[in-house]
Amino acid sequence: MDDHTPITVLVARFDDLLDRGLRQVIDGDPSLEIVARDVAHDRLEVVMRAHSPRVAILDVDALSSLAEVRLFGEKHPDTRLVLLVSQASTAECVQALAFGASAFLGRDTQARDVLTAIHLASRGLQLIPRSARDADPQVAPGPQLLTTREAQVLPMLQQGDSSKEIAAALQIGVETVRTHARHIYRKFGVASRRELGTLPSRPAAPESDDEAQWSIPMLELVRTGGQPRSA
Asked: 65 with 116, same domain?
């Protein structure tokens, strides 16, 4: 990308206060350009197709499930997804990153940190809050993130599909499904499919103030498509 070409950004629909804040922050950075804003969830697909933004900022609370993140990624591989959520959980963070999100941020994230996330996401970097790793040793960069196949198997396990049904849907062997399932259990720190099914599909209320903090300065660079360019 030309260094003088603005990074195009789509902003989904948020409540009025957050929407104004995001707009003010992004408009204040001359290297960013909002190509669509206040986009309703049911319009995201057509607007993303029309504008092909480099970065899309989505509201997790408007998604029916995090599996939508994977679908957006498959349909729009050149658009990086930055997710904002009202209350963040470690399990959901891992799942969102496994589905291809570039960043997973709390709504209380500071303005300068949102800008950092947008710029790094536009360069193909995937980020994970260090606080998530501190809260749960199972969450770590690299190998602890789900593979593409595991990310496909996960929602099927959570909705109660049998190993045979998953194997047929993905055209893989039953034993392969079971192997993926075991890896998923380990990465989420659960022992069975039943425990996996209890993980929240929406963020659970944090048990402490520390668990609710998702600050970009504490971010780890995870899956890189290259190093950030120097200014």
From this structure: yes
| pLDDT tens column, 76-89 | 999 999 999 987 67
What is the per-residue DSSP string for 2-62? -TTSPEEEEEE---HHHHHHHHHHHHT-TTEEEEEEEE-GGGHHHHHHHH--SEEEEEGGG
User: Do 168 and 135 fall into the same domain?
Assistant: no
- Give tens-digit pLDDT for 118-139: 998 998 887 765 554 444 444 4
Is the pTM for the entire model greater than 0.70?
Answer: no
> What domain range is 118 assigned to?
7-139+203-221
Q: Which helix (H) or strand (E) holds 104?
A: strand 103-106
Q: What is the largest CA-CA distance in the chain?
A: 53
H or E element that contains 195: helix 193-197
